[in-house]
Amino acid sequence: MANRTVGVRINVVARSLNGGVSSSLHFNGARVIGRLLRLERGDLLITRVDGAGLEAALGRVSSEAAVFPTVANRADVAIAESMKGRGAFEEAEEAFEGVTESPNADDRTLAAAWCGLGECLFRRAETAAASGDAEGAGPVFNRAQLAFMRVVVLYPAELAYVPQSAFYAGRCIQELGGELAKEQSDRLFNFVTRNFRGSRWSDSARQFRRRN
Fold first, then answer.
1. pTM surpassing 0.90?
2. Cα-Cα-Cα-Cα dihedral of 189, 133, 112, 198, to 10°?
3. Which of 9, 100, 124, 197 has its CA 20 to 30 A from that of 118?
4. 124 pLDDT exceeds 50?
């Protein structure tokens, strides 16, 4: 009975997403979108599944959505986020990068993918720097900065990702150093504190701006 109720609820979401379109192709697409939304929000039985279990469930959604590439890309980003959340940064980096190369991802998905890729690169560069490999860390910090700046410049309307990306772009510039590092990082930190007051990223930007 519970499974039947879940199925009905997904179908209701699917119909509302597709505006009541009844064709088989559109209904199947909406059904997959409904499943993805539920997995992203964690408000079905999946709430008790995390890590590899969640990634497997999202992987099934991605496979089913093969003819709906925008939905498949969203599922792939969610898989990468799960990998990142459990500390599998190398796998997450590869997954995020795959989405950034897709010609069919929408702006929200691309912003999430570039931000996630930047975070994975930043962590990799930090690890290299902490181990004394400054030469190896530099190019990775640079790649991370470029990934974060793509979000800030290309997807300014995606406010869920812009403040984090601007903050980390500033951090990358600090780590890279150079003659203009203070001016450029301050500009990004000020952008965050001015436009996203009260957010965790505003507080972090203020903290790291003092280090300049």
1. no
2. -30
3. 197
4. yes
- Residues 6 or more apart whose CB falls under 8 angstroms from that of 49 comprise 57
pLDDT at residue number 52: 60
Query: Sign of torsion, CA 185 187 190 194?
Result: negative
- The whole-number pLDDT of residue 211 equals 83
Segments making up each domain of the chain, as ranges: 1-105, 107-212
**Coil vs helix vs strand at 101:** coil
Cα separation, 70 vs 102, whole angstroms: 9
Are the beta carbons of 125 and 175 closer than 8 angstroms?
A: yes
Q: How far apart are CA 124 and CA 118, in angstroms?
A: 10
Domain 107-212 class, CATH top level:
mainly alpha
Whether the CB-CB separation of 33 and 19 falls below 8 Å is answered with no
Say which residues have a Cβ less than 8 Å from residue 107's Cβ, sequence separation at least 6: 155, 157, 158
d(CA 46, CA 67): 24
Burial class of residue 1 in the structure, from the number of CB atoms within 10 Å of its CB (0-12 exposed, 13-18 middle, 19+ buried):
exposed
**Cβ(120)–Cβ(84) below 8 Å:** yes
Count, residues in the chain = 212
Distance CA 40, CA 42 (A): 6
The predicted-structure confidence for 73-85, as pLDDT tens digits, reads as follows 888 898 899 889 9
* Element holding 72 (H helix, E strand): helix 69-85
